Amino acid sequence: MTRRLLPYLALLLLAPALVACGGDDDDTTVTVYAAASLKKTFEQLASDFEADHDGVTVELVFGGSSDLVSQIQNGAEADVFASADTANMDKLTADDLQGQDPQDFATNTLQIAVPPDNPADVSSLQDLADPALDLVLCAPDVPCGAAAQGVAEAAGLTLDPDSEEQSVTDVLGKITSGQGDAGLVYVTDVLAAGDDVMGVEFPESADVVNTYPITTVEDSDESDLAQEFVELVLSDSGQKVLTDAGFGAP
User: Fold this and answer.
1) I need a labelling partner for 65 at 20 to 30 A (CA). Which of 6, 32, 167, 198 fits?
2) Using alpha carbons only, how large is the chain's radius of gyration in Å?
3) Please, what is the Cα angle at 207 between 245 and 197, to 5 degrees?
4) d(CA 3, CA 16)
5) Which residues are 101's β-sheet partners?
6) Concatenated DSSP letters of 82-133
7) Digit-coded pLDDT (tens) for 83-100
8) Count of CB atoms situated within 10 Å of the CB of 3
9) Cα gap 34→140, rounded to integer Å
10) How far is CA 145 from CA 108, 134, 158, 186, in A?
11) pTM for the model
12) What single-letter DSSP state applies at residue 55?
């Protein structure tokens, strides 16, 4: 009888060790809050980062920069913040919520996005002032909305949108779904959308260039990994991912 019990006793003794070795309880998560226009590039960078860091997961939270910084100001647990403009990064630093001095890592300009068949025959920024046009813009407090206001003012135009959205991806969604004749989004968003939209260039876009800064967040539980992610974005390989997507140099 004793011999029959020995194998079971051995398993019981090994069980705690097996439990300790199994599972993913030791996995670490780095949370990155990033402007919606960075979605495609940061998904690639997050994948590259995870490949180089065993047991580390990068959780990406995308949205309008103004919404993201507001969430961080209200206690959201972010480790990294990447904004589509300096104004919203300034809100973070004004509250001393940055873990380090923000660093610029990319630039972007606007382009007109229209459905592939361009039913309203939009060919210039001036066409967006036509009251018969179903125009979609970002809200003024969102970087792409502030940029839209800037190019309109530089051109002496008043734009009266039919819809104001909280992120550039929401504007693009309105165009791709046929709910708008035209919208102002970033060059990078038009490129990422492929055949779903057509981009219309306009010379006034050069008057307003958005600069993208990035920083770690103060009191991050993963400050070292957060810093490494920032360094990846600033590295030659990170910059190549961004330039390949249409972003300009900082």
Assistant:
1) 198
2) 23
3) 40
4) 22
5) none
6) E-SSHHHHHHHHHTT-BSS--EEEEEE-EEEEE-TT-TT---SGGGGG-TTS
7) 999 999 999 999 999 999
8) 6
9) 18
10) 13, 16, 13, 11
11) 0.86
12) T
Which residues, 6+ apart, have CB-to-CB distance to 242 below 8 Å?
41, 105, 106, 233
The dihedral over CA atoms of 218, 234, 243, 61, expressed in degrees to the nearest 10, equals: -20
Instruction: Please answer whether residues 109 and 214 qualify as being in contact, where contact means their C-beta atoms are separated by less than 8 angstroms.
Output: no
Do residues 118 and 180 lie in contact, with contact meaning Cβ atoms separated by under 8 Å? no
CA angle 94, 96, 97 (to 5 degrees): 110
| Token couple for 28 | 């670490």
Residue 131: Cβ within 10 Å count: 7
- Calculate the alpha carbon distances from 200 to 113, 183, 185, 236 in Å: 6, 10, 11, 30
Contact indicator for 116, 197 with CB cutoff of 8 Å: yes
Residue with tokens 């809050």: 33
Take residue 204 and report the two structure tokens written for it: 């006034």
pLDDT at 61 over 80: yes
Cβ contact 112:137 at 8 Å:
no
Q: What is the DSSP string of 133-170?
A: S-EEEE-TTSHHHHHHHHHHHHTT-----SEEESSHHH
Q: What is the pLDDT, as a whole number, of residue 26?
A: 59
- Say what the alpha-carbon torsion angle 164, 169, 170, 171 is, to the nearest 10 degrees: 50
d(CA 54, CA 115): 43
CB atoms within 10 A of CB 25: 6
* Alpha-carbon span 95 to 77, nearest angstrom: 15
Q: What distance lies between CA 14 and its chain's CA centroid?
A: 47
Whole-number average pLDDT of the chain: 91
Strands 28-35 and 56-63: parallel
Asked if 83 and 89 touch (Cβ cutoff 8 Å), the reply is yes
